[in-house]
Amino acid sequence: MERAPVIVHPPSPTGGHRGEILEGLARGPRDLVEFLRRAGLDEDVIDVDDSRLIEWRGSRADKWGSELC
Predict the structure, then answer these.
(1) Residue 29 and residue 64: Cα distance in Å, rounded?
(2) Are strands 6-11 and 25-26 parallel, antiparallel or unpaired?
(3) Residue 36 contacts by C-beta under 8 Å, 6 or more apart in sequence?
């Protein structure tokens, strides 16, 4: 199986996720979609739950911020 082109690392202590190559801290799905849009992807077709596009490490797409505590 090929590796997903986007890696989202485990949540930071402040609750955001750090991405690989695209530097920044996403504090929610909208932030992640914005990073991917800036990288050239069409935001209308980005699905943060799509495992072919995004590999989540240490968490899931639906866990952000205070939900991690």
Answers:
(1) 8
(2) unpaired
(3) 6, 22, 43, 46
Per the listing, tokens 């530097």 go with 23
Tell me how far apart the terminal alpha carbons of the chain are, to the nearest angstrom.
33
Two tokens, residue 57? 């490490």
CA nearest 46: which of 69, 68, 22, 11? Answer: 22
Of residues 27 and 2, which shows the higher confidence score? 27
Helices within the chain (DSSP H only) = 29-38
> What is the pTM assigned to this prediction?
0.69
> DSSP 3-state assignment of 65?
helix
Distance CA 20, CA 51 (A): 15
**Torsion angle of C-alpha atoms 28, 26, 43, 7, degrees rounded to 10:** -110
